[in-house]
Recover the amino acids of this structure.
């Protein structure tokens, strides 16, 4: 073969290889995670139309050790309906003959799917509509029963349509005959069939065909998800992001703006801390209206002294005074959350609206910090340790710096706020860093001297995974020696089967109050994501992705739990799904920004390809041999 042709072939191959290398350098490689085969499902879920309607669903999935964990298993049913100005209605709905529930989950079209031995149930509320849809497909006769107090007025229009006339206007229609009966003070409306549906339309008497409702729901949910800020993730990691957003939205009370910590009964309350992270996740994802709704609710719920109760009634927003343990991290979270909201929206009107609440918190902080340079003792974050907890000190310090920024953009003097922030930060650095890491908390001790008594503060020497998030949020440089040594110590002590436990000897989920774990020290999803977020800050993107994947692999059909059994690896069901877990996943996913290939490398590859081509062209055509 002619030597010129051989050189040309080699040149073309090298050029193709070079072009492929350039393309690969320009494209960010996506990490794909295989979805796990789940062995458990949530027993309770919330659904919302994201405007004025929320329902509380029992999926019928059996609860392990229900009596021991203070719960009870219920059949598939809608237990509560919250509707706008009417509050909680007296209506509930049960579904029977579906058989034993094998699985239950939230689908990406925001539909609760319940899979039983005899068939499948689907429950959905199209966003911005007030129609509750229950659909059943069964190999036996499925019964859907709607219970109303006998005080509710109704009119039977025909055998498939009933108008509710008081205390609100509503309608009920089905593709099956509706039979009315009175049972123990209830008016019961029954619809039966193998393939049947029931639509409870609140606030109106119009009939929307079932196919149209399904299309509307799919379109509205898809459109809403399409508006989000998309993270640089793919495959299962991106699917989890979308599903976590849906869970957060469904967990919000659409009337008050607060969030449920979990649909599980023991957590069906509004923890201010958990809700703050839910709001921050939504505003980070580009959903500003529901986030603002929460910050305004939080402002309205503030105590006169500038603090908050720990938790509130999810359905009414009333403070739970029986759970009156002091937790002061809500102050810093409110300050950080409102400042972050402004950073995204540049909405000064919003800042002016929440400024009185920020001022009340700042006045409280100025009164307490000036005493000893610390926020008072409290029980935050884990509600098990009354002390000067690192978490509270650090979160409130970050909140003070955020407040100073708010004052700056509003043209107000912020020097006194910065003075408080610096004083608190100095106390954190002075007292809480010892033996190479930040301790969980400070304990106070009284020392007797020749001049009398003196209070001193001693770190308790316990590594705690909660110290990682304030570092990742900017308390100190995440690459500093203090940050690196602290994180290394926490990981060394608390890493359990791929996830991060809270602190050594953690027996929550393994004691008399909750007993769904087979051992102490269960790894938690939020703490694992604290570490993932830190890894993102220091450029360990592989480590971050591995931790996010671990969370998905230990979920309930992609709904993230609070914690995972440390021995057997299953999600602990009594507190699953957890809204804060979903919120931390959203925040971590959006914080994932792997570096693009350097421009210099791309230019070098292009130059190399051109040089190779030039050399080959010279060899083939440029060399003249003597005749």
């Amino acid at each position: 073969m002619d030597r010129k042709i051989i050189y040309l072939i080699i040149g073309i191959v090298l050029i193709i290889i070079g072009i492929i290398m350039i393309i690969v350098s320009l494209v960010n490689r996506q990490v794909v995670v295989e979805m796990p085969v789940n062995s458990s499902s949530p027993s309770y879920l919330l659904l919302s139309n994201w405007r004025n309607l929320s329902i509380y669903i029992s999926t019928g999935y059996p609860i392990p050790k229900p009596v021991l964990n203070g719960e009870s298993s219920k059949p598939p049913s809608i237990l509560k309906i919250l509707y706008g100005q009417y509050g909680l209605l007296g209506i509930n709905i049960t579904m029977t003959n579906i058989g034993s529930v094998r699985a239950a989950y939230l689908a990406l079209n925001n539909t609760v799917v319940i899979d039983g031995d005899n068939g499948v149930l689907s429950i959905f509320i199209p966003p911005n509509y007030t129609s509750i849809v229950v659909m059943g497909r069964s190999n036996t006769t499925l019964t859907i029963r709607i219970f109303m107090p006998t005080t509710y007025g109704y009119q039977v229009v025909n055998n498939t349509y009933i108008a509710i006339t008081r205390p609100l206007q509503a309608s009920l229609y089905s593709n099956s005959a509706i039979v009315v009966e009175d049972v123990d003070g209830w008016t019961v409306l029954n619809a039966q069939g193998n393939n049947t549906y029931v639509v409870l339309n609140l606030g109106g008497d119009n009939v929307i065909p079932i196919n149209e409702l399904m299309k509307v729901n799919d379109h509205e949910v898809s459109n809403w998800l399409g508006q989000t800020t998309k993270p640089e993730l793919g495959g299962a990691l991106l699917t989890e992001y979308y599903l976590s957003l849906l869970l957060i939205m469904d967990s919000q009370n659409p009337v008050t703006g607060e969030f449920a910590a979990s649909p599980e009964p023991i957590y069906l309350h509004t923890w201010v801390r958990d809700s703050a992270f839910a709001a921050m996740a939504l505003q980070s994802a580009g959903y500003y209206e529901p986030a603002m709704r929460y910050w305004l609710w939080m402002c309205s719920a503030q105590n006169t002294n500038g603090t908050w109760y720990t938790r509130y009634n999810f359905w009414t927003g009333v403070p739970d005074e029986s759970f009156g343990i002091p937790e002061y991290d809500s102050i810093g979270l409110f300050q950080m959350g409102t400042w972050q909201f402004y950073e995204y929206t540049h909405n000064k009107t919003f800042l002016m609206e929440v400024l009185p609440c920020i001022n009340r918190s700042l006045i409280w902080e100025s009164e307490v910090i000036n005493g000893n340079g610390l926020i008072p003792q409290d029980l935050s974050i884990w509600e098990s340790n009354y002390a000067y907890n690192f978490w509270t000190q650090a979160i409130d310090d970050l909140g003070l710096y955020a407040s100073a920024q708010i004052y700056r953009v509003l043209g107000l003097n912020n020097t006194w706020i910065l003075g408080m922030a610096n004083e608190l930060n100095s106390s954190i650095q002075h007292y809480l860093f010892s033996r190479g890491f930040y301790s969980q908390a400070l304990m106070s001790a009284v020392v007797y001297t020749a001049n009398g008594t003196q209070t001193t503060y001693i770190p308790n020497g316990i590594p705690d995974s909660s110290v990682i998030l304030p570092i990742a949020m900017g308390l100190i440089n995440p690459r500093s020696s203090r940050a690196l040594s602290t994180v290394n110590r926490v990981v060394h002590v608390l890493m359990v089967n791929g996830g991060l436990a809270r602190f050594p000897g953690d027996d929550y989920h393994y004691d008399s109050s909750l007993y769904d774990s087979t051992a102490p020290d269960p790894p938690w999803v939020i703490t694992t994501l604290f570490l993932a977020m830190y890894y993102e800050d220091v450029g360990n993107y592989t480590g971050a992705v591995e931790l996010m994947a671990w969370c998905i692999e230990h979920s309930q059909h992609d709904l993230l739990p609070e914690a995972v059994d440390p021995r057997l690896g299953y999600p602990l069901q009594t507190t699953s799904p957890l809204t804060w877990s979903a919120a931390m996943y959203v925040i971590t996913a959006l914080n994932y920004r792997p570096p693009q290939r350097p421009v210099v490398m791309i230019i070098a590859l292009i130059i190399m390809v051109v040089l190779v081509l030039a050399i080959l062209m010279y060899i083939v055509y440029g060399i003249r041999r003597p005749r």
Remarks:
- Residues 45 and 178 are 27 Å apart (CA to CA).
